[in-house]
Amino acid sequence: MGTKSKALFDRAQAVIPGGVNSPVRACKSVGCDPLFIERAKGANVYDADGNGYLDYVGSWGPMILGHAPERVNAVLRDAIEKGTSFGAPTELEIDLAELVIDTVKSVDVVRMVNSGTEATMSAIRLARGFTGRDIVIKFDGCYHGHADSFLVAAGSGVATFNIAGSPGVPDDTIKHTLSIPYNDIEKVREVMTKMGDKVACIIVEPIAGNMGFIKPKNDFLKVLREETEKHGALLILDEVMTGFRVALGGAQELFGVTPDLTTMGKVIGGGLPVGAYGGRADIMAQISPCGPVYQAGTLSGNPLAMAAGIETLKAIREPGFYEALTEKTTRLVNGLAGAAGKAGIPHTADTAGSMFGLYFTGMDVANFEDAKTSNLDLFSAYYRRMLEEGVYLAPSQFEAGFVSAAHTDEDIDATIAAATKVLAELARG
Ligand code: PMP
């Protein structure tokens, strides 16, 4: 790490908990201090010391067009001139809602919020209000933001720091949350048979991206759909990460599953703070002011955020966008897996659209327990060495990677070459 990043981290630690405003950014689990980023353009981020890196974090998912794309910058400049917040309805909110509804087929009506956490928190409140039931079923290693009800066997930072939940969350709250293993169809059936009439909803990451990268196996999502329908519970697909990312219509399009509610975030805001939840019109009609389920926000539907979201969605809806991105990502993942293979390192790699994962375990990873068999020391060394080679990866084995439209074929080749060199070196010990 350069001297400027180091000085900034020292300064930050005095005034911000751990020097960061979101835990995984601290890079603790990979044994180094964070780079402080000064600017980013296209596929690259630049730190305070002036070093450039090829970026596969993409702000943890939103930057599908790459950083600071000119078409989004242009609409943002326009929007700023007109005022940054009104707390009153605008046409921009309708434009983004219409685009979302046209893109995500299960969504009839959508409410904008400011983060993925707000989206999932509001969606389970709605599910509970609609069904008159309390129990929420989630899956071990899935992360749905940091609302109290979800901090049970959660993924992302909760997994990275190896903590079971969080102090400050009352037992009375989490007693209504049941977390079971991902991809375990038998367990789902067993639990639903036992208590299905008390279950408000099952919420799931349709591709798990907060314990690495795990696809649903053997009709897992279809079974969730069947079981929720059978017992009068709602199915919520948390597409905060996968939405507009693994396919234009999200994972629900990829796997042909229609949820009752969908939560969205990241790409929908084009790098500005936006989340959303939407779905069946009869369920959404329960939200205030139409119905009694309360949910609100001073900055919800913010004009800058809507403008960036609209322009981003317009860009990703252009013909050929996903084909090109998927091809690039597949080539990257094959290259990374090839590099690990050549070095004789046990690994498992997978991808969907422009999202990918690489575990240092030989297991076919189906759930969080499998993911934890990864060689975390090897991952940390890989992370640090890739950084030295100018490649910026997510600083945890339990996070997914993202490719953007700004990554060129040369960028992908350079990344594969770096991984080939680094993994060969690490295998030699
Ligand atoms: N759900 C999923 C699937 C996520 O990946 C995340 C964040 N990584 C969230 C919810 C929470 O979103 P946010 O960080 O915007 O609150």
User: N- to C-terminal separation?
Assistant: 23 Å
Structural class: alpha/beta
List segments where confidence is low: pLDDT < 50 over at least 5 consecutive residues: none
CATH architecture of the largest domain: 3-Layer(aba) Sandwich
State Rg.
21 Å
Count of helical segments? 15
| Residue-averaged pLDDT | 96
Largest pleated sheet: 7 strands, mixed
What does this structure look like?
With 429 residues, this protein is of the alpha/beta class. The protein folds into two domains: 3-68 and 319-428, Aspartate Aminotransferase, domain 1; 70-316, Aspartate Aminotransferase, domain 2 (3-Layer(aba) Sandwich), CATH 3.40.640.10. 39% of the residues lie in helices and 14% in strands. It contains 15 helices and 14 strands. Strands 4-10-9-8-7-5-6 form a seven-stranded mixed β-sheet, with helices on both faces. A four-stranded mixed β-sheet has the order 1-2-3-13. A hairpin with a 2-residue loop joins β1 (37-41) and β2. The two termini are 23 Å apart. The mean pLDDT is 96. Residues 60, 115-117, 120, 143-145, 156, 205, 209-210, 238, 240-241, 265, 275 line the site of 4'-deoxy-4'-aminopyridoxal-5'-phosphate (PMP). It is an enzyme of class 5 (isomerase). This is Glutamate-1-semialdehyde 2,1-aminomutase.
